[in-house]
Automatic annotation (TrEMBL):
Signal peptide bounds: none
Residues noted as binding heme in the record, renumbered to the chain: C515
Superkingdom of the source species: Eukaryota
Organism: Leptidea sinapis
Cofactor requirements of the protein: heme
Entry's Gene Ontology molecular function annotations: heme binding; iron ion binding; oxidoreductase activity, acting on paired donors, with incorporation or reduction of molecular oxygen, reduced flavin or flavoprotein as one donor, and incorporation of one atom of oxygen; steroid hydroxylase activity
Heme listed as a keyword: yes
Family membership: Belongs to the cytochrome P450 family.
GO biological process terms on file: organic acid metabolic process; xenobiotic metabolic process
Lineage, opening ranks: Eukaryota, Metazoa, Ecdysozoa, Arthropoda, Hexapoda
Listed PANTHER family: CYTOCHROME P450 18A1, CYTOCHROME P450 508A4-RELATED
Protein name as catalogued: Cytochrome P450
Length: 571
């Protein structure tokens, strides 16, 4: 057919009319393609959840508020409903404030990707919070299992409880020594909440006055500040190329390296301690791992090292024959902390080559260090901020505080240590914790998920690759779920005298990527809060005004700084 047409054109049509036909055909083809494109776009728009229009390339960025988009998203949800869409830069954003829809979507395995934004890219896909696919799946399984093994459970007499209790007792001592001097809860709590995660990860705690702690803390807060100042770049890559912003990115990278260095030093010390028990401690190989972290190792050195031994695991071959099993750190089954679990895992994988690796061909040291970074960033600020908010609630709601103290007096005895053994007999205390998490929404926008396939929900299409933001704060303040949402009513979380958590309440997220540290956070909140209430009365210093419930919105919703004067209940 094509040949016949061509022969006809060749024989009967002159050259000039041939050119005309060709240009006509290309115009028709281009128009058809354009119409097809428009049709697809319109179809997409028709099936997309409703939402505001944006301008080309920038989308709705020009209308986005400068601080956190939280209240802006909430007002859009009022207008467009509990699933709406908008463009930010070139990213398609879907905001969901229907608990039922969120549960349905986030339970799907194809909901577990994360946005590939320039800032997320700085972490190279390592760790747990921003990793994806097979690496995330295996790390998540591994960490969930090890959290349990280490006794991070809400029941009584679990091994990990004692570490939190140690920090609670240290905190109480510090408050006792403060002698009526007003204390900023955010500051006094800092080292103790931090130490809980340090113990879990590497059996380590910072002592009072340790300059490294101040430095480390400073780096974390600076990191958050820096991220906040360039967050528009998440949606508009060229924004980060602006001269001022490039300097910020450079500082973010330096900051990340400093934080990693802190963990890497611990990894190094632990490795050194463990490997020193081997007869042939190989300094080169050890240094290779450490240098590799910063891509400092000259590539040409690699083959030499590979020819030697490039994996710490292979050092097992060097174990002295006369080493007793209990001296071998990798076969010693007394599990101490996550670092121990990781090193043991690396060793086991080496022994069994066929078993699938939890590291999925990723650099093991980078992965372990990033998991440590992630657990700090995900677990420290959230827990500390929550406790700070609960104390504010106790100032604002004296009747609730009174009931908490009388329950504690009855179940535990005023001035006695509260432990997890008492938890089930103190449902009102836990209800107060939940009501605070609801009223202030510590993580107001959860964490963004990305869908790997097209989804249909409520008759809408959510195209694959969309960034899905759970509007947890909107749900928490929705009167359909929580009547009189402005009021602080712990009773919402009680049913027949027991703690009751409705399935539309999701302060720790929902679905496959639900908070990994939920149990740990609940242990911490209960033990810190209940003990502070059972040992002290506290009040604002004279003349200070009541802290507002409108804090500052970043990844977390943090209270503005305030101070408290503590008075011991039992002398
Ligand atoms: C009151 C305290 C806390 C709150 C309100 C909170 C809340 C959340 C939320 C909303 C998410 C996002 C879930 C999602 O992606 O859908 C999350 C994820 C996460 N949280 Fe928490 N969290 C708290 C404490 C902790 C603690 C103490 C740890 C660990 C030590 C922790 C570790 C994590 C991790 C690792 C993730 C990412 C999980 C993944 O991507 O698979 N969190 N958390």
């Amino acid at each position: 057919m094509f040949l016949v047409t061509f022969k006809f054109l060749w024989e009967y049509v002159s050259v000039s009319s041939l050119t005309e036909i060709l240009s006509l055909t290309s115009i028709i083809l281009a128009s058809l393609l354009f119409i097809h494109y428009l049709y697809l776009e319109i179809k997409l728009l028709w099936n997309l959840p409703p939402g505001p229009w944006g301008v080309p390339l920038l989308g709705c960025l020009p209308w986005m508020s400068h601080g956190s988009p939280n209240s802006w998203f909430n007002s859009l949800a009022e207008r467009y409903g509990n699933i709406f869409s908008l463009k930010l830069g070139t990213n398609l954003i879907i905001c969901v404030s229907s608990p039922k829809a969120l549960r349905e979507l986030f339970n799907r395995l194809d909901s577990t990707a994360r946005p590939h934004t320039p800032l997320n890219g700085l972490l190279g896909g390592f760790g747990i919070v921003l990793s994806e696919g097979e690496l995330w799946k295996r790390q998540r399984q591994f960490l969930t299992e090890k959290f349990r093994l280490l006794g991070v459970k809400l029941w009584k007499n679990q091994p990990f409880e004692k570490y939190i209790i140690t920090e609670v007792q240290e905190l109480l001592k510090k408050i006792d020594n403060s002698k009526d001097i007003p204390l900023d809860p955010m500051v006094v709590l800092g080292r103790h909440v931090h130490n809980v995660i340090c113990e879990l990860m590497m059996s380590f705690r910072f002592e009072e006055g340790d300059p490294n702690f101040a430095l480390f803390n400073e780096r974390i807060s600076r990191g958050m500040e820096l991220y906040g100042s360039v967050h528009v770049g998440e949606h508009l890559a060229c924004y980060l190329k602006l001269p001022g912003k490039m300097a910020v990115i450079k500082e973010i990278k330096k900051n990340l390296t400093d934080i990693s260095k802190f963990h890497e030093d611990h990894l190094r010390a632990r490795l050194e301690k463990q490997l020193k028990s081997y007869r042939y401690f190989d300094e080169d190989i050890f240094n290779f791992y450490i240098k590799q972290l910063h891509d400092e190792y000259p590539a040409e050195e690699l083959p030499n090292l590979l020819a030697k031994k490039t994996d710490i695991c292979t050092l097992e071959d060097n174990i002295a024959d006369d080493l007793q099993p209990e001296q071998n750190p990798f076969t010693n089954d007394k599990v101490k902390d996550l670092l121990h679990c990781f090193l043991e895992q690396i060793q086991n994988e080496k022994k069994d080559n066929d078993a699938p690796s939890i590291f999925v061909n990723k650099n093991k040291v980078k992965q372990v260090v990033q998991v440590m970074n992630d657990l700090f960033s995900a677990g420290m600020e959230t827990s500390r901020t929550s406790i700070v908010w609960i104390l504010i609630m106790m100032l604002r709601e004296p009747k609730v505080a009174e009931k908490v103290r009388s329950d504690l007096a009855e179940v535990v005895g005023t001035g006695e240590l509260v432990t997890l053994e008492h938890r089930l007999d103190l449902p009102y205390v836990e209800a107060v914790i939940y009501e605070t998490l609801r009223r202030v929404s510590v993580v107001p926008l959860g964490t963004t998920h990305v869908n790997l396939n097209d989804w249909k929900i409520q008759g809408f299409t959510i195209p694959s690759g969309s960034s899905i933001i759970p509007l947890l704060n909107k749900i928490n303040m929705d009167p359909n779920y929580f009547p009189d949402p402005e009021k602080f009513l712990p009773e919402r979380f009680l049913l027949d005298g027991k703690l009751f958590v409705p399935d539309y309440f999701m302060p720790f997220g929902v679905g496959r990527r639900v908070c990994l540290g939920e149990q740990l956070a609940r242990m911490e909140l209960f033990l810190f809060f209940a003990n502070l209430m059972n040992y002290y009365e506290f009040a604002l210093p004279e003349g200070e005004s009541m802290p507002s419930l409108e804090g500052s919105f970043g990844t977390t919703h943090a209270a503005h700084p305030y101070t408290l004067v503590f008075r011991k209940l039992v002398a």
